[in-house]
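INFO  loader      accepted 1 record
INFO  loader      residues=476
INFO  predictor   begin
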Amino acid sequence: MSEVTQRAGVTTHGVASGNPAASSTAQLRCIEENCRATYSLDETLVVCPRCGGLLDVELNDIAEPARRVLPGVWAERRTSLAPADTSGVWRFREMLPISASAPLVTLREGNTPLYEAPRAAEYTHIDQMWLKHQGANPTGSFKDTGMTVAVTHAVRQGARTLACASTGNTAASLAAYAARAGVRAVILVPHGQVSSAKLAQSLDYGASVLELEGNFDSAMRVVRELAEDGSLYLVNSVNPLRVEGQKTVAIELMEQVGWNVPDWIVVPGGNLGNISALGKGFIEMRRWGLLDRLPQFAVIQAEGASPFAHLLAERKRDANAALDPVADPRTLATAIRIGAPVSWKRGLRVLAETGGASIAVSEREIADAKAILGRDGIGCEPASATTIAGIRKLAANGRIRKSETVVAVLTGHLLKDVDYTAKYHSGRLTEPEGAAPGGEPKPIKGAFANPPARVPATRAGILDYLRRSKQDSSVE
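INFO  predictor   done
INFO  writer      dumping tokens
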């Protein structure tokens, strides 16, 4: 068993026994076809200094015999109490670019459930649906799986101030992991456009929260400028180490489905880090011989913030494609209210390789899909519900067949935005401000609203209400 010690919130340990190979060595490579420059991981780069392009981590393959035993090794580690093994990210360390040695910054992230969702499946008109709920991570969103790797790498490279632009979830995750590591977190958020619950997390974890005028894209531009001289270490999904941590969700999912590749993986689309990471995870597993095929991916965006869906609608899937940003993105699903996603080229590459799709859904479709998930006893934040709305639309137009296996990724917890839920069920939810110029905000009339009932505080009054009412189980 590994030796384990705890120090200032940073876990240190030796590598567990039974490891078929040390963690793969790796390098950074620019994704731009006319550049393709390579760099060492020790340089703490997040973009290519030569051309400004995004960087990929390229792993060097381990020997084929060692690859074959990896699923068994990963499964065996679930019985270990070593911190690296209890993390749903570091348990898969052979597919990570940095070793699981000291110091390791972890909150036991990952290990998220895969749920069946019969009512959501009925609503979308497919035979069976699975929900991979990343809202079960320590800070309530998928961001933790990437943050543990990015912050660990930053600490090892001596970074003391870590920064991000955020619509809320990245902020909460960075704040928590920086607190564990004992380093400073600086968070830039668009003023008035972030859920109070997400801001509360960042404040409680001790981060420096700076509210800026403008939207997320403005905050992203500023924080990238601040990171250029190396004074801040940037941990947004432009950071290739973030993508490496998030790709382990794909491995964990394959364990949970018995290594039977689903036909479709459906994710929300904001900054497009999810599609980039999950796609990379699946592509690398196939390259290593762990899978015999790839799933198709679908990226679902809100209509008011859908530059990637528009790009795909124009059938621009090649390396010369150009994304047209949305200058003023609008959606109540604040986690994906992004008009200029930084990882769009990575996402486009994944869809090109898997034959995937990207579409946009309306605010009403998102709201009703979120309520349907609740009928399965599973809550999520609004952005997550775009997956269910998108599956319903893709099934209706024949893109997803009724018999195909579908996994919807839920990216955030219900409690990330409780105001949205309360407004939906009380009939107070309205279209995003500015969506209908010159008029009053348009109400969103939810098909599955479940408002509280006011009844007398008597036995007779309660029984009378129960006789007059019944729970509506319809999902049409």
